[in-house]
Every structure is written in C-alpha cells, then in structure tokens.
C-alpha cells in the first residue's frame, strides 16, 4: 500500500464512521477494507439495546466485503476519536484473519491524523485457523 492508497482507505473509514449508531457508548468507529481486486467496502459500529448484539465497524466492513463475494482482503483501516490509533477488539482481530494473511496491513487511525501501521499477525499472534481443525 502506498501513501495515497493508505490515505484513501483511512478517509473512507472516516466517512463510514459518520453512520455509526452508538446511542449507548457514543464511541463512533469507522472501518474500510480494500480487496485484492481493488474494491472498497466500509462499515461503522452499530449498537443495540441488547448490548451484546452490537457489531463493530471492522466486522461490518469485512462482512460487507464477504457478502459481496470477496474472499481476500489487501488492507484494512480503522478510525475512532482516540488518543492513539484505535485498537480493534479481539473478535475483530480474529475475523480479520479469516480473509487476510498474517502480513496484511492494518492501519490504526484517529481523528488527529495518526495512522499506525500494523499487521493482522501482529494484532493476534497464534490466531485460530482452518488448519487448527485438522485431526487424524
Ligand atoms: O475496535 C473496535 C472497538 C469497539 N468498537 C465499538 C463497539 C461499541 O459500539 C463501541 C464501544 O465498545 O465501540 C468497534 O466498532 N471497534
Ligand atoms: Zn471489534
């Protein structure tokens, strides 16, 4: 991902954040993914009165891509109003691994222009995969 591509993905995550539905936490998150084919998908966090049913921005973006038939993601950006780049929750880290590689870039961003580049593998070392279900 070059600088222009990263800036575009972070800007898309920021735009998606506008549609966050957060009457309970008031913590708005946006996410954007770009696929191997160059298609872009976004998501925002959507809360529920039954709090546990809340869905994070990252998973909404990834599931939007997957629902459109995408099976591999090239990069992910996440943004929130945080002091440093927002830290994805454990569930989203695991879901990222399903359609990405250990070295797939993840850009953790905030509204002050911070963009911390990390990877799916760094975010969740030892993540559970298909191969972990193999047995004889
Ligand atoms: O990486 C994260 C962390 C939290 N949230 C959402 C879930 C909930 O709506 C709010 C507070 O946890 O932030 C996300 O969307 N992504
Ligand atoms: Zn999450």
UniProtKB/TrEMBL annotation:
Highest taxon above the source species: Bacteria
Keywords assigned by UniProt, alphabetized: Hydrolase, Metal-binding, Zinc
GO biological process, one term: pyrimidine-containing compound metabolic process
PROSITE patterns (UniProt xref): CYT_DCMP_DEAMINASES_1, CYT_DCMP_DEAMINASES_2
UniProt: Zn(2+) binding residues: 56, 89, 92
Residues annotated as the enzyme's active site: 58 (proton donor)
GO-annotated cellular components: cytosol
Top-level enzyme category: hydrolase
Reactions catalysed, as given in the entry: 2'-deoxycytidine + H2O + H(+) = 2'-deoxyuridine + NH4(+); cytidine + H2O + H(+) = uridine + NH4(+)
EC numbers, comma separated: 3.5.4.5
Named cofactor requirement(s): Zn(2+)
GO MF assignments: cytidine deaminase activity; identical protein binding; zinc ion binding
InterPro entries attached to this UniProt entry: APOBEC/CMP_deaminase_Zn-bd, CMP_dCMP_dom, Cyt/Deoxycyt_deaminase, Cyt_deam_tetra, Cytidine_deaminase-like
Domain CMP/dCMP-type deaminase stretches: 4-131
Similarity annotation: Belongs to the cytidine and deoxycytidylate deaminase family.
UniProt xrefs under NCBIfam families: cyt_deam_tetra, PRK05578.1
Function: This enzyme scavenges exogenous and endogenous cytidine and 2'-deoxycytidine for UMP synthesis.
Name of protein: Cytidine deaminase
